[in-house]
Write a structure and sequence with these properties.
The protein is globular. It has one domain: Thiolase/Chalcone synthase (Peroxisomal Thiolase, Chain A, domain 1, 3-Layer(aba) Sandwich), CATH 3.40.47. 35% of the residues lie in helices and 19% in strands. By secondary structure, the protein is α+β, with helices and mostly antiparallel strands. β2 and β3 form a beta hairpin. The model has no long low-confidence stretch (mean pLDDT 95).
């Protein structure tokens, strides 16, 4: 998401006409924290046992009082909505099919996200392991997936010159930070900062897309911002989110903007504004505003 914002600002400053902002991640092949060297000052200030993402999600659940059932309900609807969007072909405009290979060597085309749970069950999720008295289980955590996403960005004059179509434009973006032991709620501060800077309120935003690193993290943010209380949501992650699709860290910021773009083009044609936002490791976060363009 930061790459997209840097590209847009370069265009606005006249440093270039066309940019591609992209991100890629494989969550399975590289272990979390691989070759990570913590700065000494960081270790003086924080307890490293609180830094792993699962631990931060439990702490967020405790501080923001998100219970297990609400987190599981969110995961349930994330999968249900993602499956419905997939079956309706809504992701077709944002997925580039690539050839895959099964374990037996059979070739096949990968043209849908493969982690969506078609048989998601509230009853089964309730039996999954958490720490004693905890909220976080595999069911309410984003699955470990691989992914890549890219955005083609240019000024309106260049798009008109090339005969390209468009319907939204970048209208502002901010980064923010928070305590890394509750890193998932960083987007609260990014979104608040964005709304204050643009003079908008939560009610002015027609569509929201946010990363669902964990059910507790996403719910805490939505509640704190006054966007929604519990799933299912009317205008948040309307095609599901990372609890169904996965959250390849470097990819998600671009993917969220792409999906927001498509939702505003199809299901929310009357929405004037949409916001894409996500948290990052160690407390960083980002929120970007996208505005409908009147042709």
């Amino acid at each position: 998401m930061a790459a997209a914002e840097h590209a847009v600002r370069a265009i606005m400053c006249g440093e270039g006409d066309i940019y591609i902002a992209s991100g890629v991640e494989d969550m399975e092949k590289v272990s979390m924290g691989f070759a990570m060297d913590f700065p000494p000052k960081f270790m003086e200030r924080y307890n490293l046992a609180e830094i792993p993402m699962g631990n931060t999600a439990e702490k967020v659940a405790e501080l923001w009082k998100v219970n297990r059932k609400d987190a599981e309900t969110m995961a349930y609807w994330s999968n249900k909505k993602a499956a419905a969007a997939r079956d309706a072909g809504k992701f077709a405009n944002e997925i580039v099919p690539i050839e895959g290979e099964k374990e037996d060597g059979t070739k096949f085309m990968v043209d849908v996200d493969q982690w969506i749970r078609d048989n998601v069950s509230m009853e089964e999720m309730a039996t999954m392991e958490t720490k004693e008295g905890g909220v976080v289980s595999a069911a309410v955590s984003s699955p470990l997936t691989a992914g890549a996403a890219a955005l083609l960005l240019m000024g309106r004059d260049k798009a008109d010159e090339l005969g390209l179509t468009y319907h939204i434009k970048y209208a502002g973006g901010v980064m923010a930070g928070c305590d890394p032991t509750v890193m998932g709620v960083g987007l609260i501060y990014a979104a608040q900062k964005l709304l204050k800077r643009t003079g908008l309120t939560v009610k002015d935003i027609g569509v929201w897309e946010l990363n669902e690193a964990f059910g507790s993290q996403a719910l805490a943010c939505l509640r704190e911002l006054g966007i929604a209380e519990n799933a299912p949501f009317e205008n948040v992650n309307v095609w599901g989110g990372a609890l169904a699709l996965g959250h390849p860290l470097g990819e998600s910021g671009a993917r969220i903007i792409v999906t927001l773009n498509n939702i505003m083009k199809t299901d929310f044609k009357d929405a004037k504004y949409g916001v894409a936002m996500l948290c990052g490791g160690f407390g960083n976060a980002n929120a970007s505003l996208w505005q409908r363009v009147d042709k």
